[in-house]
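Our preliminary data section would be incomplete without showing what the modeling component actually yields. Below, a chain of 271 amino acids is followed by its predicted structure, encoded as tokens that our downstream tools consume directly.
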Amino acid sequence: MRPNTSLLSSIGALVGLVASSEQPDSSGLQVPLSSSDEICVHPSYQVQIISSSPLVMYIKDFLTAQECAHLRAISINSFRHSVVADGKRSAQRTSQSTYVESDHVVRCIEERALAFQGHDVQPSQLEPLQLVKYAPGEHYHFHADWFSDPAYKLAVNGGNRVSSFFAYIYVRNDTTGGGTNFPLLSPPVSDRWCDVVDCDEPYNRGLTFRPVEGNAVYWENLHPEDGSGNQKTLHAGLPVTAGEKIGMNIWTRQAPLSDEAVAGLHDYPDL
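Predicted structure:
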């Protein structure tokens, strides 16, 4: 069956981030927004269905340019080499990552992610936002975001990861490669997708999203019938061949995360 590519909605919310005062510093980077800008006005964004099983949606303009610049500014010196499920560095994942400290911009993005998922998802179910940076040659091999090890999905720790957003917050102008590949999903048919989907990717390699700054991919990780992990959500961060890409993970758990669990996430193994 072809994926449903109909437009779901163009959503404009009343509350979101106003960030027009953010200006570049002498290095060309945007400087963090000041506390006087704590008004949240969500951007209008468009949502399109890529797959219904698992549910995968593409979100155009999920982040504003000011939000992307702010996230870069507050995280510039905090990246470290990413680890995998055993807490160690691996050739499977060669990117760098960092958790983002909460501020009014981060809270605005979190509100947007919660509203997208409906009224039943609580703020306490969100993990802290994580940024991942890919330089030339860096990648993250095929993996799923849901946990297979029972030790990582205990109810006291919030359970498993119900859903994922992966948003592109920075894509250098000369960037090539660095797509997000779902090898078990069929790519859409229409060439109107080619601005965000790599239409040159061989069909048998599945679906590859191009890194487009400000846009995001959303998917649900678990089978709704029994809560088990959906193998079709297997995906990879393909190698950047030139330039640089920074993405953002927003993960939602099945249940609230305790304060202790949130505090421990900074040393928590990534999958």
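The helical segments are 65-75, 104-117, 259-264. The chain has one domain: 46-267. Preliminary results of this kind motivate Aim 1 of the renewal.
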